[in-house]
UniProtKB/TrEMBL annotation:
This is 5-methyltetrahydropteroyltriglutamate--homocysteine S-methyltransferase. One of its GO terms (biological process) is methylation. InterPro entries: Met_Synth_C/arc, UROD/MetE-like_sf. NCBIfam families: PRK06520.1. It comes from Bhargavaea beijingensis. The lineage of its organism: Bacteria, Bacillati, Bacillota, Bacilli, Bacillales. Its EC number is 2.1.1.14. Residues 19-371 form the Cobalamin-independent methionine synthase MetE C-terminal/archaeal domain. One of its GO terms (molecular function) is 5-methyltetrahydropteroyltriglutamate-homocysteine S-methyltransferase activity. Gene3D superfamilies: 3.20.20.210.
Length: 378
């Protein structure tokens, strides 16, 4: 993918140096959001501050070498719940400890539940969020927009309605709702869409697969439904819409909720999804090795290696990262690989345990290594 593309040129690959999308919230933004929830500033006042911080973020992304920009998810409290609660039939509710238990961190008590027929009525707030980001970034800048996967409705939403007999039934309405929303994002100018999905971890270990069984589902059938949901939401998309997917094992205040490699789900993830790129965690032993990349069966699929962690401030050894890229290229050609941080820097508004300058040092690290490995302007 290259920046400054004519409107008619087809864009189908991530950048060699890319990123997952979320960034640490500046102090001014955190303060404004707190004041809004206290009722001391209005929604319009908060939006004006968000606009200003996103404008600064877009410039910072460019200054630190990124070819594509996001809004940092600055208008969200959660990477996933805010979006899901914007769909018809899904609402926020208070939970005992979030939707998953994280290692070493207590999650805010919030979740979403299905309270009626799921749908998309055309007025989802994220459409306006994208339009504003596009306006701020300008036509000459590649803009990436991130949304949670449709599988998060199954994997993270409680079922509190008699509309659906069993949880898998939500897919009959979730898929067309997502399909229509993605079409509206495209019509608004979106040409780079990233679908974020932590639910695939359900198939990474036998412990997680047993959890699925205990909840009444067959993991061997469910994984096919997961793939069908992704493929259904992006079916018949325009040729110039790049769609990637990020698979994560949890990212909350520098902690995680599970481990496990890609092998058990590899044939589906690498051989059964119609996405153009996969952003995958490979920053430590929790993610397993590169052997599952052998399941990639298309020359037009790019795997973005998340070798630089967003969870810790220390910079990885450059030569060690390059050696791991060479190792990955034993299973997939170098031309089908790219580099990014393993996850975002702030999947929730709390953010990970590093400073903004340490965050940008990580981004510059990715950009430099990618230039050394692949050359060009990434």
């Amino acid at each position: 993918m290259t920046a400054n593309l004519p409107e008619t040129q087809i864009v189908r690959t991530p950048f060699r140096a890319d990123h997952v999308g979320s960034f640490l919230r500046p102090a001014a933004l955190k303060e404004a959001r707190a004041k809004f929830h206290e009722g001391t500033i209005s929604r319009d006042e908060l939006t004006k501050i968000e606009d200003g911080e996103i404008r600064r973020l877009v410039e910072a992304q460019k200054e630190n070498g990124l070819q594509g920009v996001t809004d940092g998810e600055f208008r969200r409290s959660w990477w996933h719940l805010d979006f899901l609660a914007g769909l018809d039939g899904i609402e926020f509710y208070k939970t005992p400890n979030g939707t998953r238990k994280f290692s070493g961190a207590e999650v805010r008590p919030a979740g979403v539940k299905v309270t009626g027929k799921i749908g998309y009525s055309g007025d989802h707030p994220f459409i306006a969020h994208f339009k504003k980001l596009k306006e701020i970034a300008g036509d000459e800048t590649v803009v990436k927009f991130t949304i949670p996967s449709p599988n998060l409705v199954f994997g993270r939403a409680a079922l509190a309605t008699d509309v659906y007999e069993k949880k898998e039934d939500v897919y009959r309405d979730v898929v067309p709702a997502y399909h229509a929303l993605i079409r509206d994002l495209y019509d608004a100018g979106c040409r780079y869409l990233q679908i974020d999905d932590t639910a695939w971890t359900s198939f990474f270990t036998e412990t997680e697969r047993n959890r699925i069984r205990e909840e009444g589902s067959d993991p061997d059938r469910l994984i096919l439904q997961f793939a069908d949901a992704i493929n259904g939401t992006i079916a018949d998309r325009p040729e110039d819409l790049l769609v990637t997917m990020h698979i994560c094992r949890g990212n909350y205040r520098s902690t995680f909720f599970t481990s496990g490699g890609y092998e058990d789900a590899g044939k589906i993830i690498f051989g059964g999804l119609d996405v153009d790129g996969l952003f995958l965690e490979f920053d430590d032993d929790r993610s397993g090795g590169f052997e599952p990349l052998r399941h990639v069966n298309r020359p037009d699929l790019t795997v973005v290696l998340g070798l630089v962690t967003s969870k810790r401030p220390e910079l990885e050894d450059e030569e060690a990262i390059k050696a791991r890229i060479r190792e990955a290229s034993e299973y997939l050609p170098l031309g089908q690989l790219a580099l990014s941080p393993q996850c975002g820097f702030a999947s929730t508004e709390e953010g990970n345990n590093l400073t903004e300058e340490e965050q940008w040092a990580k981004i510059r690290h990715v950009v430099k290594i990618a230039k050394d490995v692949w050359g060009g302007n990434n």
